[in-house]
Amino acid sequence: MNDFGTALTKFRKKIIADISTKDWNKDKVLVLIVLFLDETGIKIGNKQYANQNGTFGLTTLRRKHMTFKNNQVTFEYKGKSNQMRHVEIDDVQLAKLI
Description:
The protein is of the alpha+beta class and 98 residues long. It has helices at residues 2-19, 26-40, 47-53, 92-97; strands at 66-69, 72-78, 84-89. The chain has one domain (2-97): Alpha-Beta Complex (Topoisomerase I, Chain A, domain 3), CATH 3.90.15. The protein has four helices and three strands, in the order H-H-H-E-E-E-H. The chain has a three-stranded antiparallel beta sheet with strand order 1-2-3.
């Protein structure tokens, strides 16, 4: 467990460094995905399910699923098992990055 705590501390430092860069490189995009997952617990999604079933997850969400209002991002979409999902992101920094 101690090793995990040490690794987690290093990982968090890397996240802060990567998200703070001005350039939108691969590392910054991956960090944004990790932060999004951590904030929302949203399922990853699958292109095949999006195409066949019209259900979505993090990797298949579209702009039409998003609304921005007062530094908040809201996602409304059909997720796993055709359940309508309503996900709000109140974290201002994360909302701005999205």
